[in-house]
């Protein structure tokens, strides 16, 4: 009995989509995907290490040096108030990193995977309910709703965070704009879990009836173990691809919210704000770099996410050529 | 399935045809007006730091196209902002008005006498002043009705008392203990007598402000500033222009009032485009005839080599753009804190670098050109060390002791404007204080301002008439509704009250100068700059006045073929 | 049609429920959000007695559900409240005109997205294996990546400023048969272009993926083996099977379009509902916000319902099984 149990508990290997080392090798062979990965990593690293890497603060102005062209001190020039464009980009990257990471973690992983697994495995009414809720969220125009939600909820969130102002560590975080970040990634998570949940659910639905799982259940293996050892590895590929695409989408949404003034607001750094400042036609004619610098970085980042996601999709799903 | 495909194929063909048709239509027709200020960095409605947009252009019987903003209201009793006032002065009129030479001249009243003690004005109304509908003439009753309606607490005007409060009986009327304003007396159909509480030389000027304009009782009865406002879409008024159409958020079209008693306007049509768009681009594309020039274009049009330079005009404005403090909320209840903030702003840099010298630096409240302007006024100079010292000496002990500070500005979108950003960065650098920004749309901004919700705020004040009383008493007198600082200083009040009734002009102006110096020393406001008109006007637009404050001026404009 | 009725019933039951939840949530956000509605009404008169009186007059001291009920009752009778942005103007006078504007150009964009995207996707699928394939995928991906608020200033710069081919902004309406149409003016070309580019790319990608899947199927091989001309194979067998799931996309495409409308309208100065909602939010104009949310949510839920039902008709697997393929 003991050997039989062990054998059956071995995670399925045949007929599984490529995993681990195989996948990595195939990915590495795709040069384009590698380039994208590098681009993303560079931007993310710059963002994470912003305090170390950025030569100036986001709002540090040098009024004597407004609209300076590229120079050693300011490789990407300066803006209307003499603020270093390179530093601004780096700090804005930090915002994007924080937001997308937080949103993916809560919305994508915790909510999305969790609810997807739950719906797929539990089936029946639970599944129905979760999917209806997902439908509802998917059906509504997100920007409009985000506009309404963030604008209305913001004062409550700010009031809530105010209570922590006097705390030692938390206080600093609140200063640094925690309410804004919380609001934005909360809002993103609210809408971001649907896609992943759906995908996971359909995968789990089919896996649920597979031999291994049936056998495991017959043998009384606990739910947790089934989820962790049998289901999860099989959906991990979906998760990876989904996360990649979602990271890009969430970054895009954050930029849009900040542009509207309801996301990350002044004085906290954001690409949305930079793009907004540079978009006026008269400004564009006189000082195109104000738009082009953040726009290029944003376009690169989002494009890289999408290309990478596409490549991962190719690599990780067995059926595609 | 086959059917589905056919349907879709057909749809595709249909779309192609439609697109082709559209293309043809579009290339052939299509000219016409454009106007939309699309960009988010363009300061939104009402921001003080925005450039004035557009000027109408018109041809004799011709058409003038301008950029404009949605007004907050067309009700003269309720108007407190420049955008609304700009339209109202063209649509409505009152007893007196201000002409192009900035003199007070007769309007509905064709003449008047003042009593020897200066408190009683007897107006003789013109005969034959028709309402736009042409159904009836204006009589003294209409004037009394309009004034009382403005003052009526039920109307909920926030400004009427400021401009009409000098009339005898207003206090009782507003408090509800009187049914009418006893100081306004209808002698007969064409004679109106107004008595004010003391001899105030600026009173007549106050009557040029919209709150004293005439409205049609039959139309507005029962409406207030907040409700039943539909009549404003087709007001029956007495001004030089009629409102032809107001497409919310899209356009406002005015047409001339041919029977205007001061002479019909020379224009055939005025269109304000409200949607927004890139102003100078539209001007260059011949979609509008006049435009304001923003910071991004000003250097280009100033260049003599640029063809647009010939169409570029500048003119001074009688206004002041400032940062105001609410002296009843911490930390601005301590004058040292306010002074510290004032000394921490490098205005020279601000105006030179950020505003490209398109404005004039302000040390005090009064703008150049106004009677009483004091060249020797001692402003609070940029001095970061002094600023830090003052902050340390204040009851808060320094930047760490300060509560959270938020400044309020009107607008929406990611950008709070270069001026705000520059000043905020200056405070952070010179004082070590981080100030955050709250942005709201203009209407909400004004409402919250009146409710005293802000610690500090960014705003502008444009003269209503060329008298220092309009700047100093209206905004700083303790009893004035418009005093958003909440400051109530006995010394200041005394100076202002004295100046009210001082008959010797020189002494009067000197009193105002003393008041101004006091206001500056107390740092109730940080005066930043006085604006300038910077506009491009098409060469075929003639007699387009650039007045220093809001006066009716469209009726003089004409277009040369 | 055996499975249809229960299928439709199931869908129908959920729709009003979702609506209820959405309306309740928005109403709650509004009433408990910032800004006391009474303050909005009574202006700056700070007499507490007056405040209480007005509050009572307007029923603002009634329990939450009573207020909600009253509001919904009014809505069902066509009274959507009054705006604060345009003081005192009834909400319905404002938003329906603006919605019409937004719907106009969005419909055109939607048509274009499918009219160009579908053939483009099929074409790309047929090019698989050639050098054109990765190129087109790249182009599609790029177009879906760049946010609308970046493409618009760039387009304006190119076509309006530099080339002067198109006006940079504006909305001009013409009266055609009693309808005010703004889409018959060259001004609308750039906005629709900016709005549809990501959509075209997205639809093309999906269409390509779908077509590839169908190309793999046995019946295609059969058709080819039978010697049918390639064109016939493609149009009759491949395309129509690949098109099936596209019907579900229409709804989502529209959602995406409307999301982008906000930026298009602001940057091009089009007086639509997206731009106005943004303004209303910054003005705390609650009646407008509630009305727009309710209407949009209703429209979408209905649209989705219709799409689902139509799809259920088309694909029998859906109504007999649990749910169709979803994207």
Radius of gyration of chain B: 25 Å
Number of extended strands of chain B: 21
Write down the oligomeric state.
heterotrimer
Distance between the termini of chain B: 64 Å
Q: What topology, given as strand order, has the largest sheet of chain C?
A: 1-2
Got a strand count of chain C? Answer: 2
Question: What is the approximate shape of chain B?
Answer: globular
| Secondary-structure class of chain C | mainly alpha
Q: pLDDT below 50 for ≥5 consecutive residues: which ranges of chain B?
A: 1-59
Taken as a percent bin, the fraction of beta residues of chain C is under 5%
- Uncertain segments of chain C are 41-46, 321-327
Derived from helix and strand composition plus strand pairing, the structural class of chain B reads: alpha+beta
Could you please describe the fold and organization of this structure?
- Chain A has 321 residues and is an all-alpha fold.
- Chain A contains 14 helices and no strands.
- Chain A starts with a helix and ends in a 5-residue tail after the last helix.
- Mean pLDDT of chain A is 80; it is low at 1-15.
- Chain B is α+β, with helices and mostly antiparallel strands and 561 residues long.
- Chain B has 17 helices and 21 strands.
- The radius of gyration of chain B is 25 Å and the shape is globular.
- In chain C, helix 1 runs antiparallel to helix 13 and helix 7 packs across helix 8 (189-215).
- In chain C, a hairpin with a 2-residue loop joins strand 1 and strand 2.
- Chain C is globular.
- Chain C is mainly α and 327 residues long.
- A two-stranded antiparallel ribbon of chain C has the order 1-2.
- Mean pLDDT of chain C is 77; it is low at 41-46 and 321-327.
- Chain C is built from 14 helices and 2 strands, in the order αααααααββααααααα.
- At the B-C interface, helix 1 and helix 14 of B face helix 2, helix 5, helix 7, helix 10 and helix 11 of C.
Task: List the defining traits of the structure above.
heterotrimer, A: 321 residues, mainly alpha, globular, C: 327 residues, two-stranded antiparallel ribbon, 14 helices, 2 strands, disordered C terminus
In short:
By secondary structure, chain A is mainly α. Helices cover 75% and strands 0% of the residues of chain A. The model of chain C is unreliable at 41-46 and 321-327 (pLDDT under 50).
């Amino acid at each position: 009995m003991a050997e039989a149990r062990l054998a059956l508990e071995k995670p399925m290997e045949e007929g599984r989509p490529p995993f681990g080392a195989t996948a990595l090798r195939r990915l590495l062979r795709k040069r384009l995907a590698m380039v994208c990965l590098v681009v993303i990593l560079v931007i993310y690293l710059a963002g994470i290490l912003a305090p170390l890497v950025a030569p100036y603060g986001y709002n540090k102005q040098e009024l004597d040096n407004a609209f300076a062209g590229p120079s050693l001190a300011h490789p990407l020039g300066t803006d209307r108030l003499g603020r270093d464009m390179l530093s601004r980009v780096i700090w804005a990257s930090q915002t994007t990193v924080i937001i997308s990471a937080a949103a993916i973690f809560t919305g994508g992983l915790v909510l999305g995977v969790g609810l997807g697994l739950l719906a797929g495995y539990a089936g029946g009414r639970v599944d129905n309910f979760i999917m209806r809720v997902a439908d509802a969220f998917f059906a509504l125009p997100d920007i409009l709703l985000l506009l309404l939600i963030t604008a209305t909820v913001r004062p409550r969130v700010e009031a809530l965070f105010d209570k922590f102002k006097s705390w030692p560590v938390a206080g600093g975080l609140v200063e640094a704009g925690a309410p804004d970040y919380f609001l934005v990634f909360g809002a993103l998570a609210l809408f971001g879990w649907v896609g992943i949940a759906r995908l996971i659910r359909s995968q789990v639905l089919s896996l649920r009836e597979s031999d291994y799982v049936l056998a495991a259940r017959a043998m009384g293996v606990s739910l947790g173990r089934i989820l962790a050892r049998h289901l999860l590895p099989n959906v991990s590929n979906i998760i990876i691809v989904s996360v990649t695409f979602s990271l890009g989408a969430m970054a895009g949404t954050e930029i849009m919210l900040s542009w509207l003034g309801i996301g990350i607001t002044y004085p906290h750094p954001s690409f949305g704000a930079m793009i907004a400042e540079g978009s006026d036609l008269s400004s564009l004619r006189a000082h195109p770099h104000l738009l082009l610098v953040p726009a290029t970085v944003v376009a690169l980042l989002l494009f890289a996410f999408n290309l990478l996601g596409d490549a991962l999709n190719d690599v990780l799903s067995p059926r595609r050529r | 399935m086959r059917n589905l495909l056919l349907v879709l194929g057909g749809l595709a063909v249909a779309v192609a045809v439609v697109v082709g048709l559209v293309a043809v239509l579009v290339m052939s027709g299509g000219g016409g007006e454009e106007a939309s200020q699309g960009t988010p960095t363009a300061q939104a409605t009402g921001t003080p730091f925005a450039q004035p947009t557009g000027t109408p252009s018109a041809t004799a019987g011709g058409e003038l196209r301008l950029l404009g903003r949605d007004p907050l209201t067309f009700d003269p009793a309720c108007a407190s902002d420049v955008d609304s006032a700009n339209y109202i002065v063209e649509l409505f009129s009152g007893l007196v008005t201000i002409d192009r030479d900035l003199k007070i001249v007769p309007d509905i009243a064709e003449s008047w006498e003042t009593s020897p003690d200066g408190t009683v004005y007897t107006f003789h109304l013109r005969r034959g002043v028709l309402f736009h509908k042409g159904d009836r003439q204006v009589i003294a009753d209409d004037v009394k009705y309009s004034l009382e309606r403005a003052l009526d607490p039920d109307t909920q005007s926030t400004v009427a008392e400021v401009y009409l409060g000098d009339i005898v009986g207003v206090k009782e009327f507003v408090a509800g203990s009187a049914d009418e304003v006893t100081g306004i007396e209808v002698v007969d159909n064409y004679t109106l007598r107004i008595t004010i509480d003391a001899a105030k030389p600026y009173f007549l000027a106050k009557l040029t402000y919209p709150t004293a304009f005439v409205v049609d009782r039959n139309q507005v009865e029962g409406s207030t500033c907040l409700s039943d406002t539909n009549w404003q879409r087709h007001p029956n008024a007495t001004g030089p222009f009629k409102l032809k159409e107001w497409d919310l958020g899209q356009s406002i079209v005015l047409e001339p009032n041919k029977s205007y008693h001061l002479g019909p306007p020379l224009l055939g049509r005025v269109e304000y485009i409200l949607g927004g768009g890139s102003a100078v681009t539209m001007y260059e594309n011949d979609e509008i005839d006049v435009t304001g020039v923003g910071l991004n274009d000003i250097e280009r049009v100033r260049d003599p080599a640029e063809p647009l330079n010939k169409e570029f005009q500048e003119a001074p404005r009688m206004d002041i753009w400032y940062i105001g403090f609410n002296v009843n909320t911490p930390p601005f209840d301590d004058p040292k804190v306010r002074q510290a903030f004032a000394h921490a702003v490098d205005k020279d840099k601000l105006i030179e670098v950020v505003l490209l010298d398109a404005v004039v630096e302000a040390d005090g409240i009064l703008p150049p050109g106004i009677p009483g302007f004091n060249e020797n006024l001692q402003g609070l100079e940029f001095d970061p060390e002094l600023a830090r010292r003052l902050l340390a000496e204040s009851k808060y002990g320094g930047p760490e002791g300060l509560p959270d500070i938020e400044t309020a500005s009107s607008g929406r979108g990611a950008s709070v404007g270069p001026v705000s950003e520059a000043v905020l960065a200056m405070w952070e650098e010179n004082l070590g204080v981080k100030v955050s920004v709250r942005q709201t749309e203009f209407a909400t901004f004004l409402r919250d301002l009146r409710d005293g919700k802000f610690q500090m705020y960014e705003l502008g004040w444009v003269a209503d008439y060329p008298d220092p009383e309009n700047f100093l008493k209206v905004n700083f007198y303790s009893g004035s509704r418009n005093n958003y600082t909440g400051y109530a200083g006995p010394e200041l009040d005394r100076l202002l009250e004295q100046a009210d009734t001082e008959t010797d002009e020189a002494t009067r102006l000197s009193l105002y100068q003393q008041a101004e110096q006091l206001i500056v020393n107390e740092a109730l406001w940080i005066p930043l700059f006085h604006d300038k008109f910077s506009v491009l006007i098409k060469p075929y637009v003639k007699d387009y006045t650039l007045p220093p404050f809001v006066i009716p001026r469209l009726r003089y404009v004409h277009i040369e073929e | 049609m055996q499975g249809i009725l229960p299928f439709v019933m199931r869908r129908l039951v959920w729709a009003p429920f979702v609506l209820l939840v959405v309306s309740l949530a928005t109403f709650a956000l509004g009433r408990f959000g910032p800004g006391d509605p009474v303050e909005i009404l009574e202006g700056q008169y700070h007499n507490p007695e007056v405040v209480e009186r007005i509050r009572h007059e307007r029923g603002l001291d009634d329990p939450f559900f009573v207020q909600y009920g009253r509001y919904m009752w009014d809505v069902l009778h066509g009274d959507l409240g009054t705006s604060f942005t345009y003081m005192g103007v009834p909400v319905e006078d404002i938003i329906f005109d603006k919605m019409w504007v937004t719907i106009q150009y969005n419909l055109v964009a939607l048509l274009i997205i499918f009219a160009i995207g579908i053939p483009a996707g099929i074409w790309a699928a047929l090019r698989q294996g050639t050098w054109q394939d990765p190129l087109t995928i790249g182009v599609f991906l790029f177009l879906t990546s760049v946010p609308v608020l970046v493409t618009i200033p760039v387009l304006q710069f190119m076509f309006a400023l530099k080339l002067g081919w198109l006006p940079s902004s504006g909305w001009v309406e013409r009266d055609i048969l009693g309808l005010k149409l703004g889409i018959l003016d060259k001004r609308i070309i750039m906005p629709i272009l900016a709005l549809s580019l990501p959509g075209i790319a997205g639809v093309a990608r999906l269409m390509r993926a779908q077509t590839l899947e169908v190309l793999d199927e046995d019946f295609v091989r059969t058709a080819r083996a039978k010697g049918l001309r390639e064109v016939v194979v493609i149009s009759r067998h491949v395309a129509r099977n690949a098109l099936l799931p596209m019907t579900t996309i229409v709804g989502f495409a529209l959602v995406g379009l409307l999301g982008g409308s906000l930026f298009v309208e602001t940057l091009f100065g089009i007086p639509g509902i997206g731009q106005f909602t943004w303004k209303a939010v910054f003005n705390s104009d609650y009646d407008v916000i509630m009305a727009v949310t309710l209407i949009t949510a209703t429209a979408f839920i209905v649209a989705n319902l219709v799409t689902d039902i139509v799809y259920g008709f088309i694909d029998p697997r859906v109504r007999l099984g649990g749910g169709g393929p979803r994207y």
